[in-house]
Amino acid sequence: MACEYVKEHYGVPAEIGRRVVVGGTPGIIAEDRGHYIGVNLDCDKPGVVCNVHPTDNVEYLEMGVIRKMTRSQQRYRDYLRADSTLSFAEWIGAA
After folding, report:
1. Prediction pTM value
2. What is the pLDDT at residue 2?
3. Averaged over 24-49, what is the pLDDT?
4. In sequence order, what E strands does the chain have?
5. How is the chain split into domains, by residue range?
């Protein structure tokens, strides 16, 4: 299960999809990052995930819905993860 380590070791209700306030900035837990929680802040674009320590000025709220990335954001993320030697335009077949 996601965020099990964080729940067990820090005693916090961390779950993927839980709304949080980190240092006064609202967001949502979008990824399990091991010892950290991956938070997508409301002021960031969907898909931008920051590592946050689960006890470092985090207020846990109700469950919410993670914003989805656009198709172009997903395509660019896939390009970065592919670690290709091609340019992005070549990778998508536009060049």
Report:
1. 0.84
2. 86
3. 96
4. 18-22, 25-33, 36-41, 50-52, 58-63
5. 4-67
Arithmetic mean of pLDDT, 8-18: 97
Query: Tokens at residue 38, please?
Result: 């991956």
Write down the residue that tokens 């993320």 correspond to. 77
The encoded tokens of residue 21 equal 């306030």
Place of tokens 């995930």: 49
* Assigned CATH for 4-67: 2.30.30
Bridge-based pairing state of the strands 36-41 and 50-52: antiparallel
Cβ–Cβ under 8 Å, residues 14 and 58? no
Q: Which residues contact 61 (CB under 8 A, 6 or more apart)?
A: 18, 19, 20, 21
Residue 20: how many other CB atoms lie within 10 Å: 23
